[in-house]
Structure formats: structure tokens, C-alpha cells
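Hi R.,

As promised on Friday, here is the backbone we talked about, encoded as C-alpha cells. Could you run it through your design pipeline when you get a chance and send me back a sequence?
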């Protein structure tokens, strides 16, 4: 029997950028490609590991089909439904291709657990194993062509079988080009996971992957979406309301607050289990009263979602008049959530599994010239979230940042009216569905569609996107 490792203290591994090592040609690599089970235990240098993972399914262009970053391995409608897990001696990690890092999943040596009893006679100590996991929700909610087959379980198999094979083929070629060896094998279906192994040198080898659907699977160390007490600012509409419904569906207690009492009543009528509170988070008195109310009525509060925000078109070529004439985006979008975090941290730290979820924006990475103040406040939220995450890690509070693309909400209605009543082709519920999957996997910065390529993008890439977007204005 295999014991299941307990979550430990793994840390994120930032991989070095992939580099061209001027290896052998593709033709020679194809001639060398073969399967071998002669597996050594010598560790791969981190640069070789980084190059291998990039070759498998790394980001090779920031903007691919349908606005999603392109990968070295193709996938159906660029859905990128295959996650690549990396099992090392100390634990299992998730390869984040966009950020080029390994995110810790669970501590402990899982490598043997991937093998059937007969396979364990071959090798159990190869230093790296690759595990392919298919996320079917990415096929169902693809950003690409909405093919009917993407929602058919039998057709889905053909897609993720092929897409897994494409990644495995890249792994095989990299191994052959670098003197490694590959073994694509099945797994112990009764065990916790399947995996490939990787090693280097004459006695080293690379064991490639088997596929496994992630539906219904949970990993140790991830965020539990049920059993929380969640406070969502601006929770009566848009992304905030969709998050409230998602947390309710997951089995959490949810409080929403906002300025519009009618919307709060409508939300409560649809979901009687919701707790509601009229509150203008830009007002100091309201913030203090919200904290006092929460401490008394929901003392188990362990998740704060800073979602309330406003967006305005402001043209500074006319001076300060437009800025001064409307709502203060700096106060609402940046100052208020910063103060709320400070107010609520003492309450959060008294409860288990505490987290703060800040909603920023893709415009915080690539600003829109027509919305300069909004863009600046969201850039500020990104910086604040990074700094706060570092600080609060000392007291056990996780800090997540959600980076939405353009979502079909009521945000900046007047600005959208100037643009022929523009409406985004992304519903809040669809976006939040992806957000919840990211939270469940403990992804600390969660982008979607176009913004998935912005998180971790280089300065040069961001500057290019800025010019492309604002050249139309």
C-alpha cells in the first residue's frame, strides 16, 4: 500500500527562462527517439528542467488563437485543457507555463504511486515524473470555436487523448535531442496519480506521461470552497454577484454589501440564504460600521473579496474638470480596499483558512488611455496584492488576485454608450466559473482568456499590447 503524503511546506519554484542550447536537429532527434526503461536517479539541472517543460507545453507566443497565449503543443480550439504536474522527490508541483514556475501542490514523494506493481520493478527513484491531467471544463468553456463536440463526453476523449499525445511527443523529442530517454506508460488506476519520470546522463531516463481527467479530483493544499464565511463588496451585481452565487453553491456562507439597497433586496429574494448589508465602502464611517457588524453577526468570517469598483472615461487634455466632476476612482477602487484589508485582517486571522481576494483588471497590466485613472488604480491593486501577500504569509492569510478581461457587466455604462453600447462576449458567471477553479487550485494570480497571457508577461510584451490596444483610440 502507498501512504498519502501530508501537505508540507513546499515553496514556489521560479524556473529560469528557457534558452536555446543549440541541440541536435529535429531530424536527428526523430532518428534517436525510442522508449527505454533504464532509469537513473541523477537530478536534472534546473535549466534542463525548465527547457523540458517549455518544450512540452510552454508559452511560445503571448498572443495565440482567440487571444489566448500560444503553446508549443496544439490543443482543441486552443483550450489548453491539459495541465502538466511535476512530481519531484520532495513533492508534486503544477507547471504554470505563463509565469514559468512550478506551483506547490502537495509535499511528499508521489513517484512510486504512479506505477503499477509490475512497473515498480523497473524504477521508483527517477528524479522527475510528469503527470498529464485533463481539465474538461476548459473544453466546455473554451475561448475558441464553440464546437458541439466540446461538450460531448465521448468526443472530449478524442480531444484530450490527442492533445496529451502532442505534449508527450514534444517530451519524447526533447529527451532524444538531449540524451535522455522516454517511457510513455499507463498508471496504477488504484493509486493517487499517474506519472512519468525524468533523469539525466548515460544512466538517466525520462519517463513520459499518462492522461487522467481532473473532474472530481481534489489535491492536498488547495483552497476549500465550502465551509467558508465570505464577505463580498459590490456583491449585488456583476462579478461580485456571480462570485456570491458560486460560493453559495459550493456550500459557504456569503455576505454581500453594496450601495444599492434595491439590488441587495433583489439578490436576497433570489437567494434567501444571503446576508446583505447596505454599505458605501468609500466612506470611512460605513467601513467601520461594516467591520463592527461583521464581528458581531459573522465572527467566523475568513474570506474578504474586494470587488467594489467604478470605471470612468476621463480625458486629461481638457484639464482636471472631467476627473473632478464624477466619482473618485482612486478612493473607491484603491484606497477603500486597502483600508478594508487593514481593518479586517485581525478578524480574518482569528479564523481558519483565511484569505483575501482582490479584483484587479487586465487594464492594470496594459492600461487603456481612455480610462487612465481606472487603469492606474488597478495597477495599484496588483502591486498592493503582491506586497500584502508577502506580509500576510507570516500570519497565515492567503492573498489572491483576480485579473478579469472585459466582462459583460454594468461597469462604465456611460463610456460603453459612447462606443455603440459595447458589450463583452463574456458573462460574469462563465468568468467566475474559471475563477473558482483557479481558487480551488490555489492559483494566487488568476487571469482568463486575454489576461491569462498578461500575468507574468515581459515588459516588452506589455508595451507591445499597450500600443496595439491604444492605437485604435
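Update: got your reply. Pasting your designed sequence below so it's all in one thread:
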Amino acid at each position: 500500500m502507498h501512504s498519502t503524503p501530508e501537505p508540507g511546506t513546499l515553496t514556489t519554484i521560479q524556473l529560469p527562462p528557457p534558452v536555446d542550447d543549440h541541440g541536435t536537429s529535429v531530424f536527428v532527434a526523430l532518428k534517436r527517439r525510442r522508449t527505454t526503461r533504464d532509469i537513473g536517479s541523477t537530478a536534472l539541472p534546473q535549466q534542463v528542467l525548465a527547457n523540458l517543460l517549455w518544450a512540452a507545453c510552454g508559452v511560445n507566443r503571448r498572443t495565440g488563437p482567440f487571444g489566448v497565449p500560444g503553446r508549443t503543443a496544439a490543443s482543441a480550439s486552443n483550450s489548453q485543457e491539459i495541465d502538466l504536474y511535476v512530481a519531484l522527490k520532495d513533492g508534486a508541483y503544477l507547471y504554470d507555463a505563463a509565469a514559468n514556475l512550478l506551483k506547490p501542490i502537495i509535499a511528499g514523494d508521489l513517484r512510486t504511486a504512479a506505477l503499477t506493481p509490475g512497473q515498480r520493478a523497473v524504477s521508483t527513484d527517477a528524479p522527475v515524473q510528469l503527470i498529464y491531467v485533463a481539465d474538461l471544463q476548459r473544453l466546455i468553456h473554451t475561448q475558441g470555436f464553440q464546437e458541439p463536440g466540446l461538450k460531448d463526453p465521448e468526443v472530449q476523449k478524442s480531444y484530450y487523448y490527442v492533445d496529451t499525445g502532442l505534449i508527450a511527443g514534444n517530451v519524447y523529442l526533447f529527451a532524444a535531442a538531449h540524451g535522455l530517454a522516454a517511457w510513455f506508460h499507463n498508471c496504477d488506476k488504484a493509486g493517487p496519480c499517474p506519472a512519468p519520470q525524468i533523469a539525466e546522463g548515460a544512466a538517466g531516463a525520462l519517463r513520459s506521461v499518462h492522461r487522467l481527467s481532473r473532474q472530481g479530483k481534489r489535491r492536498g493544499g488547495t483552497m476549500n470552497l465550502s465551509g467558508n464565511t465570505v464577505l463580498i463588496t459590490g456583491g449585488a451585481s456583476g462579478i461580485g454577484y456571480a462570485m456570491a452565487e458560486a460560493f453559495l453553491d459550493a456550500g459557504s456562507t456569503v455576505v454581500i454589501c453594496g450601495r444599492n439597497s434595491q439590488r441587495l433586496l433583489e439578490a436576497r429574494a433570489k437567494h434567501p440564504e444571503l446576508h446583505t448589508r447596505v454599505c458605501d465602502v468609500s466612506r470611512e464611517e460605513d467601513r467601520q460600521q461594516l467591520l463592527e457588524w461583521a464581528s458581531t453577526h459573522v465572527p467566523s468570517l475568513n474570506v474578504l473579496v474586494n470587488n467594489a469598483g467604478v470605471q470612468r472615461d476621463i480625458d486629461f487634455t481638457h484639464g482636471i474638470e472631467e476627473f473632478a466632476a464624477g466619482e473618485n476612482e482612486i478612493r473607491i477602487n484603491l484606497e477603500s480596499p486597502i483600508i478594508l484589508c487593514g481593518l479586517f485582517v485581525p478578524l480574518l486571522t482569528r479564523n481558519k483558512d483565511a484569505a483575501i481576494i482582490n479584483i484587479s483588471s487586465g487594464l492594470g497590466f496594459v492600461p487603456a488611455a481612455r480610462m487612465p485613472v481606472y487603469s492606474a488604480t488597478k495597477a495599484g491593486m496588483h502591486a498592493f496584492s503582491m506586497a500584502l501577500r508577502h506580509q500576510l504569509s507570516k500570519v497565515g492569510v492567503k492573498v489572491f488576485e483576480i485579473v478579469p478581461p472585459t466582462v459583460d457587466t454594468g461597469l462604465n455604462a456611460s463610456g460603453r454608450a459612447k462606443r455603440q453600447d459595447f458589450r463583452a462576449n463574456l458573462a460574469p458567471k462563465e468568468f467566475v466559473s474559471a475563477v473558482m477553479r483557479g481558487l480551488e487550485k490555489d492559483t494566487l494570480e488568476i487571469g482568463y482568456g486575454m489576461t491569462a497571457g498578461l500575468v507574468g508577461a515581459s515588459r516588452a510584451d506589455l508595451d507591445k499590447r499597450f500600443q496595439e490596444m491604444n492605437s485604435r483610440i
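One thing I noticed while checking it: The chain has two domains: 13-213, 229-470.

Thanks again,
M.
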